[in-house]
From TrEMBL, chains A, B:
One of its GO terms (molecular function) is D-lactate dehydrogenase (cytochrome) activity. Gene3D superfamilies: 3.30.465.10, 3.30.70.2740, Vanillyl-alcohol Oxidase, Chain A, domain 4. Belongs to the FAD-binding oxidoreductase/transferase type 4 family. PROSITE patterns: FAD_PCMH. The keyword Transit peptide applies. It comes from the Archaea. GO terms for biological process: lactate catabolic process. It comes from Halovenus carboxidivorans. The keyword Oxidoreductase applies. This is D-lactate dehydrogenase (cytochrome). InterPro entries: FAD-bd_oxidored_4_C, FAD-bd_PCMH, FAD-bd_PCMH-like_sf, FAD-bd_PCMH_sub2, FAD-linked_Oxase-like_C, Oxid_FAD_bind_N, Vanillyl_alc_oxidase_C-sub2.
């Protein structure tokens, strides 16, 4: 059955509704490996009113609406599971207001990371929790998926820097969640409920973010270790000792090898930790404090890099997601791993992943936001080889199970989407998932907003 | 009609259910001025299971349950509005676990601030967002009311330091919200929805908090200004310049006068700002940076105090809430003001309060967490004088209206309770309040949990 788009073309302008095959295909993919369906139509609203009009009409008709933006999700979060309408928010890409005197910026959801950084930078400010994918992703996507980034270890997550949201609910009503005051205890905190709800409860149409002043001193460096156990232990010890790091990223040997192959970089053949420090005073003392801790873990070398060299290192780190997927055309990433565990369990989990990789004879490059206990592990498999695929799935799941067992989460910053639905019950238990479901049913009784996401097939 | 408590005495132990008049009266009061009703029974659960048993039974019978702990709320948040059962959680006061290697502590809801500080301190850690009332309030109350404190300007609110909650819902089901991982994007963020919901959505039975390492350097001081305009402008400028303060509190002349009368302190007859700085390195440079900014606002004196002297100053600051209410037996606080505004509006709001005080001929002592834009203003009135009461109410409301008008909130950290229900619609709008209501109805369909709070009488 084809969707009759008359109700859409009647209320939106020329070029804001399409059923063209290219657009449908584009909106059926993301960066991950989860499979979804093509939408039946794509709409491109430019105002809050247009978002509300589309949702109200779709709600009356019971037609699914899946919000979409840059398509950089990793779990099929923005790929329709049940056809319907893909709501592409990339044309809502205006900076609405900047109030440097309050460290605040108001954005439409389609604004991308570089615009945030550029606009903030004009006032000596920056947006600390920008994800590694910030160059190619939108603020709406970051909010919908509760994103975080390399600087979360010092500054917190995207959610911690969102003050107020304008959100259109399934029935087209427009709400304001949060406050432009830096704190409020007035009524229910709908803002943080909506953040990370992956477009299943509403569509963000405006976000007020808090910004920070740029630190006076920034220095970075790279530490090499003889093996991964020592590198992971060094990270854990640094965090437990309270070293004030702004970034602390672990990169294992397989990841380094793939990075070299991808970019022609010359990362050494050792596990390594990239670090960055931000301070207004005393940065060298903090770096020396950090060095003294790293040295107790068989540190091979701790290079403090100048700004240009550091830029190259961080670019190599950012490119890892590309490097891993480009490494071998015959071995594709199974799912992008995103477990996060309490820091004392971090070393154990890294070791477990590598041991399982050996046991199952599969490549498992690991990198990620070590200071948060967040590990991006990737299982590379020949997807035409059923048996290898099975082993890969087994490995992947064993790691998630282990992370949940030690009090961690299946996904630190990528969301559940379609790919991780099967872990939701294990992580939260049936009574907690039932509470989530009752909220979904209350705010979206017809189930039109991004159906087939987050919740398991059988709750 | 008297409540038949058989269903309670059957499932709880000896001494865990009372209908004694002393207990009923105790649970009908808090620290504020809002009026409520006496409960018909008070229960004292000691385990999660007992909380669940009571809620399940009350839910089946449609009997209101209002969670209660230290009774330090200011808006009648924990005082029954419709009788029923007062659930006193003060006997659930165990520290369940401390994991210093993860900076984590697990607490029952009745644990009070000093126990948190003492337990954390044994491991060189502390709980940064502890409210000024932390000495006399419970972690359950802090969580239920989205509390914050003097150090929120640097470290954030209580909510920012809560990792995971065990919560009993109205039907007795037990959920776990959040994660022991420092970040998660797995499913809906029920944790932050429950924080600040004032016991209307569930009862917290266990909280896992994050702790922080103690800073190596702590110094404090006091700055005096010729008038309140200059003091407020100095605070605003310091925040806008990005001074790294751990506390920055404004105290007006009326508050200082009342403090002197209450404690026999000798605070000077000028508006003043109390400050504290935390750092691992370079604290003196930061203090000098701060001084350079304060000096541009006609600074009279900036005294850096030693630890003992600083302790006295902070005690005076903490005692302000007592001092204001004890100042004059014939003039009682009308409601404790708690507006919070974007920092650029802070000076205007302080000035507006004092101008209105003059216009209405009423004392309006102001103090509070200036760096957050949070003003605790108190309107003192002779409550026997109808006309004065009317003027006081008028003044109080005009200030809230103005705060909302400039993008702020009616309540930064005290919650809505009964006292601020009339402002909810103005602050959030009817569609946002309807969304809050639909969540309340979904999680507590019989409306047994703390009815008569947060939502306005007519939505």
């Amino acid at each position: 059955m084809t969707l009759d788009t008359t109700f859409l073309t009647e209320s939106l302008g020329d070029g804001q509704v399409t059923t063209g095959q290219d657009a449908l295909e584009e909106h059926a993919t993301d960066w991950g490996t989860a499979t979804g369906t093509e939408p039946e139509a794509v709409v491109y609203p430019t105002t809050t009113e247009e978002v509300a009009t589309v949702l109200e009409a779709a709600n009356e008709r019971g037609i699914p609406v899946t919000p979409y933006a840059a398509g950089t999700g990793l779990e099929g979060n923005a790929v329709p599971a049940e056809g319907g309408i893909s709501m592409d928010l990339t044309r809502m890409n205006e900076v609405l207001d900047v109030r440097p005197e309050d460290f605040q910026i108001d954005l439409q959801p389609g604004v991308m990371g570089p615009t945030i950084e550029e606009t903030a930078g004009e006032h000596g400010l920056f947006f600390p929790p920008l994800p590694s994918s910030g160059d190619i992703s939108t603020i709406g996507g970051m909010i919908a998926n509760a994103a975080s980034g390399m600087q979360t270890v010092k500054y917190g997550e995207v959610a911690d820097w969102v003050l107020e949201l304008e959100v259109v609910l399934a029935d087209g009503s427009v709400i304001t969640a949060g406050s432009k005051a830096v704190k409020t205890s007035s009524g229910y905190n709908l803002r943080d409920l909506l953040i990370g709800s992956e477009g299943t409860l509403g569509v963000v149409t405006r976000a007020t973010l808090e910004l920070a002043g740029r630190p006076e001193q920034i220095k970075g460096g790279r530490a090499l270790f003889p093996d991964l156990d020592h590198a992971a232990a060094a990270v854990t010890d640094a965090i437990q000792s309270g070293v004030d790091v702004a970034k602390i990223e672990l990169i294992d040997e397989e990841s380094a090898m793939m990075s070299n192959a991808y970019t022609g970089a010359d990362l050494p053949d050792s596990p390594m930790v990239f670090l960055e420090f931000h301070a207004n005073h005393g940065i060298d003392e903090e770096i020396e404090f950090c060095r003294s801790i790293l040295e107790t873990h068989d540190l091979i070398e701790f290079e403090i890099a100048d700004e240009e060299r550091m830029g190259d290192l961080w670019q190599a780190r950012k490119d890892l997601a590309f490097a891993v997927r480009s490494y071998d055309p015959d071995r594709q990433p199974l799912h992008p791993g995103d477990i996060t565990v309490p820091i004392s369990k971090y070393g154990d989990l890294v070791k477990e992943i590598k041991d399982l990789g050996e046991q199952y004879d599969l490549l498992t490059p690991c990198f990620g936001h070590a200071g948060d206990g967040n590990i991006h592990y990737t299982v590379l498999v020949d997807t035409d080889d059923e048996e290898q695929l099975r082993r890969g799935e087994q490995l992947y799941s064993e790691v998630v199970d282990r992370a949940i067992e030690v009090g961690g989460t299946a996904t630190g910053e990528h969301g559940i989407g379609q790919g991780k639905r099967k872990y939701l019950l294990d992580e939260h238990g049936s009574e907690t998932v039932a509470a989530m479901r009752s909220i979904k049913d209350a705010l979206d009784p017809n189930g039109i907003l991004n159906p087939g996401k987050i919740f398991p097939e059988t709750e």
